[in-house]
Amino acid sequence: MRSGDLYQTGGVMFGDPIWLMLWLPGLAAVWLFTKRMRLLIVLAGTLVGGAAIELIFYPHYAAPFTAVLLILMVQSLRYLRVWAIRNLPGGKAAGRFAILAVCGSVIGVGLAAEAVRVYQGRTPDRIQAVNARKGMVESDLLANHPGRHVIFVRYTGTQSPHEEWIYNLADIDAQPVIWAQDMGGENGKLVAYYPGRSFWMFEPDVDPGLLTPYHD
Q1: What three-state secondary structure class fits 149?
Q2: Left, alpha or beta for 15 (phi > 0: left; psi -120 to 50: alpha)?
């Protein structure tokens, strides 16, 4: 699962993780011949190690490491160019061609992969938490059932704190739709407190778009 998280992180940061292939050919040379660059390699390893121990990993956790990966990529390309000049027939022309060929291939594959994601609607801006539908649930309820309401939320699984449904504005009593935790028999107190409202049961772990009438 964490490998998938890191792959998604690479997609958010670089458009496609295949960009990271640019610095792999010269990574060994960076480690062997440039001591001051070793810290960056250690930091990149720290990113992976830190990601491995996180219970939940989000792409923005890796934002501070973007500069590290870009520096390693550029330095690796420099070593690749020097190697091509020294070892391939053609000298500087060969070095320039090697860099252009590698970069062109990676850019082409990356753009193709991104085009597939755009076509399938899997770009990062379209990936949202389930509770992003909360506003839609409220608007649909008010459109189909004008009036004032209370929605009891019943969680049936392990809930991520980043996908919380139950929150209201400061003046709770003035809201047309109030969200409340399902407390079983204790719900009757809230029903008595809001006698003019309609009450609904909502189970987001079962169906994040279904409201059923609540009967005390």
Answers
A1: strand
A2: left
Task: Count CA atoms within 13 Å of residue 20 on its CB side.
Answer: 17
**Model-level pTM?**
0.53
Q: Are the C-beta atoms of 151 and 179 separated by less than 8 Å?
A: yes
Length of the chain: 216
> Helix (H, G, I), strand (E, B), or coil: what is residue 151?
strand
Q: Rounded mean pLDDT of 130-148?
A: 91
- pLDDT at site 72: 81
Backbone angles phi and psi of 152, in degrees to 5:
-85, 130
HSE of 60 in the Cβ direction (CA atoms, 13 Å)? 1
pLDDT tens across 15-33, in order? Answer: 667 766 666 666 777 777 7
Q: Which of 108, 160, 100 is nearest to 129 (CA)?
A: 160
Give the pLDDT confidence of 144-201 residue by residue, as tens digits. Answer: 999 999 999 999 876 677 788 999 999 999 999 999 999 989 999 999 999 999 999 9
What is the spatial distance between Cα 75 and Cα 40, in angstroms, rounded to a whole number? 11
Sheet holding 198-202, edge to edge: 177-181, 149-153, 198-202, 211-213
Q: Which amino acid is at 13?
A: M
Residue 62, both tokens: 């890796």
Q: What's the angle, vertex CA 206, arms to CA 201 and CA 212, rounded to 5? A: 25
CA-nearest of 54, 51, 47, 2 to 20 is 47
